[in-house]
Amino acid sequence: MLAINSLLNTLETELQQIILHRKLLNPLMIGIRTGGVWIAEQMHQRLAINEPLGLLDISFYRDDFSQIGVHPHVKPSCMPAHIEGRDIILIDDVFYTGRTVRAALNEIFDYGRPNQVILAVLIERNGKHIPIAPDCVGTRMALTANQRIKLTGPKPLAIHLETSPDTP
Amino acid sequence: MTKAIDNLQLNAEGKLKHFITIEGLSKTLLTEILDTAESFVGMTDQQIKKVPLLRGKTIVNLFFENSTRTRTTFELAAKRLSADVLSMSISTSSTSKGESLLDTIRNLEAMFVDMFVVRHGISGAAHFIARHTAPHISVINAGDGQHAHPTQAMLDMFTIRQIKKDFADLRVAIIGDILHSRVARSQIQALNTLGAAEIRVIAPKTLLPAHVETLGVNVCHNLTEGLKDIDVIIMLRLQKERMTSALLPSESEYFKCFGLTESKLKIAKPDAIVMHPGPINRGVEIESSVADGPQSVILRQVSNGIAVRMAIMSMAMQPQGGMQ
Asked: For A79, which of B35, B45, B318 is closest by C-beta distance?
């Protein structure tokens, strides 16, 4: 189990700096289901964001429908406000291949055209497949292909490092 | 027959491949359809009401019978899933020039289609196509003769669950022309599978199929008695076009005995909802003030039809084991 609090603290600091640097007066925060929403709930509270948190389920935008089909436990996305012209802080738990964020961006742009999107993740691990990178990161980790980060929560929120002997 | 349909509708992993009838499908699978549809309803908030799930897939709506709601909602559902859609009707097809159903299917297969949505006046038509079509093609039944209309039943179940939340304590009345209604057959199967407390069919004897009780329903021939304690009222259209003999004295007599009026609606529970699969015959099976009244969810059924059909289409188009 990894210490989550220090990662949350780092992510909060990075977000504060970027909000200040980019002069974001009224950003809209969106969490990607499921782990991203848990992290977003923490950041939403810590940064005292005014508007309710947006929840994004990217199941219908994934690029692996032809391999695995529709996720059986898909939940509705829930956007609390119009996102046209808004500054968005998009939050996920782990950044790995980048495919989830690609899907999330496509879905967000179907709701409207935001002014800018900032990507914040608790953990960025190696293994990127597409040219997308987070702007704010709690920590960076170098893992082997058979290692996986698992977030459990929301109460208590905890990170586990799992190693699978079967996968290469 | 049921077993053959079971095997045909599901792939080796138990996932949906064709959607021909509710019969033989599990509560888990029906619930999964409803849950998936729930997420598609949320899409109406999007500026661009489309998801890329079926991008590059070709869906052919094959309608051998007239339809407004079903055909347009299927078409819209396919478009919202980003599929390419071709809508064919019998009057403009080669079938009217003598081409057989199978030849029509073979020709469309040669155009690399991925799914057929079929409406046909003969019971079993969708099943027939599913049995004979190429293995990569999915078939959705959009109504076959007097047999089944499973997507209508699922959008009705979705609407009921949206308002009533749970099926366990629900008493549902299905009123009218049960004899000719493929919708009623599918609704009864769906309600039984999802665990409704009671399904009551209310109709004159001439509009009920023989041994209707064996479908798992209670039978009543009196609307005033039958509406007591009812949570959900489903009115059916009098299908005059399918009536081959004089089953009723007159439409006005039918309305007097089985038409849903404001005063009769008061016999049901105060929060009862009124449903109708459409098209409505105002003044024949339902009074206008009830159809347009606060307890009516008829237009909500139409809206939900899009999300439910999106769910069924995307689930049937999932990768089928062994064929990838």
From this structure: B45
